[in-house]
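Quick review question:
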């Protein structure tokens, strides 16, 4: 029996005393303690237990069993109390952690997490749960701290009389303009669950496109890192072996071989790293400076649309994002000009952003949308044709949805084709780097062999 969980000192002493009595009573060689007994330790005969002591033994057993049951219940109660404390501490941590975010700028959550939270909110509202309760459930269960804190604050604001769209406007870092516009339109039309469903699907499609582009870039990035590691290992461990051979021969070395040997010597000195780290930091700062200049960003985006290997993927991903966003906003009843303004902000390429801006002013002037897109050489003919058919038949929303589905499928196929092209190119890239180093190191050997021959 473990007495550590017994908090009452008196009860603990009583248990220890009862255990001692039990040991005494259960001893078969026990000597009863009565007045007339004149027995010493030298006698080995066992004296029978008197009836009085036998009754006492039964009472002690009953008392001990009752006490044992009581103690076991106390121990179980204590364990449950400790486990309950741990559970309450976890719950307090979930509550207190978002409070630490008060007064701080929230981070933008991953698109997948926001899509899951939006889908859950829509499902709970559809099943009949009140909006406040649904928001609080998501705030308690979400793993992302930005979603947890913002949903908790939104629920608090709604309970005080604010609308959901008004509360969303307070957290632009978590909910972008597209999200806020869709929720506002859904509240106005009284179709909030449908709007949230549409919003969740939109976020899922955007996350899918983003993931596909990342997967297309992951392979070349991994190969580039592997190439750097291989070259670094060769410089540190392979080239010094050749250096020892050439030092013994004393033969003159070609320029490229001498350059690699000098570079290898530099890499094996600590001074090189003292120079390389500040230089790398300076290059990083220069890169950040260039990436913040609009002229450099414009040139980079334009180059992506001109390179044959990236043009197809960039164009289709931009059109897929734009079509899906415009379709969701238009279906929710958001005006076309406002939809264009919001959809423009989902595009990362400045060339496409400028095209949407020009289309906005053309439509504002009274021109059809398909004519605004027809003037741009970057926009495919099929895209403008579908817009024209949608405007003429009055089914623009359906046509934009079909365009979004089509270009999302095209992005998937473009990623697969780009990956299949990049695989052999990256293998050739690695082979060229390693081959140059090997040829440079074997050139002196070939010249020595020809001299001997």
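Suggested answer, residue by residue:
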């Amino acid at each position: 029996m473990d007495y550590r969980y017994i908090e009452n000192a008196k009860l603990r002493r009583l248990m220890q005393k009862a255990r001692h009595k039990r040991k005494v009573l259960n001893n078969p060689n026990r000597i009863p303690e009565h007045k007339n007994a004149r027995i010493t330790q030298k006698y080995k005969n066992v004296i029978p237990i008197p009836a009085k002591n036998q009754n006492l033994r039964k009472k002690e057993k009953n008392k001990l069993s009752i006490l044992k049951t009581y103690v076991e219940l106390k121990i179980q109660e204590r364990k449950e109390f400790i486990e309950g404390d741990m559970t309450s501490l976890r719950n307090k941590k979930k509550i207190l952690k978002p409070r630490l975010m008060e007064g701080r700028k929230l981070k933008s959550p991953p698109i997948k997490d926001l899509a899951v939270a939006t889908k859950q909110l829509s499902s709970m509202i559809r099943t009949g749960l009140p909006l406040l309760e649904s928001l609080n459930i998501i705030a308690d269960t979400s793993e992302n701290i930005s979603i947890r804190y913002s949903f908790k604050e939104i629920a608090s604001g709604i309970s005080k009389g604010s609308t959901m769209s008004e509360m969303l406007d307070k957290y632009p870092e978590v909910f972008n303009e597209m999200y806020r516009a869709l929720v506002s339109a859904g509240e106005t039309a009284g179709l909030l669950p449908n709007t949230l469903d549409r919003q969740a699907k939109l976020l899922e499609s955007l996350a899918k496109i983003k993931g596909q582009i990342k997967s297309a870039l992951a392979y070349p990035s991994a190969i580039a890192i592997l190439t750097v590691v291989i070259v670094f290992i060769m410089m540190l461990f392979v080239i010094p072996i050749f250096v020892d051979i050439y030092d013994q021969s004393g033969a003159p070395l070609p320029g490229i071989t001498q350059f690699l040997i000098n570079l290898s010597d530099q890499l094996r000195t600590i001074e090189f790293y003292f120079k390389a780290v500040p230089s790398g930091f300076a290059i990083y700062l220069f890169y950040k400076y260039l990436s913040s200049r609009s002229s450099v960003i414009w040139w980079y985006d334009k180059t992506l649309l001109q390179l044959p290997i990236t043009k197809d993927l960039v164009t289709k991903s931009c059109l897929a994002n734009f079509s899906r966003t415009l379709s969701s906003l238009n279906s929710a009843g958001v005006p076309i000009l406002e939809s264009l303004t919001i959809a423009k902000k989902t595009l990362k390429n400045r060339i496409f952003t400028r095209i949407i801006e020009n289309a906005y002013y053309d439509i504002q002037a009274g021109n059809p949308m398909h004519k605004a897109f027809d003037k741009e050489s970057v926009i495919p003919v099929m895209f403008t044709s579908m817009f024209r058919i949608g405007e003429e038949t009055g089914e623009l929303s359906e046509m934009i949805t079909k365009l979004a589905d089509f270009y999302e499928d095209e992005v998937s196929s473009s990623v697969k084709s780009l990956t299949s092209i990049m695989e052999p190119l990256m293998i050739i890239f690695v082979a060229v780097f390693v081959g140059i180093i090997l040829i440079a190191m074997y050139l002196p050997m070939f010249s020595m062999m020809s001299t001997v021959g």
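Why it works: The radius of gyration is 39 Å. The CA atoms of residues 279 and 413 lie 41 Å apart.
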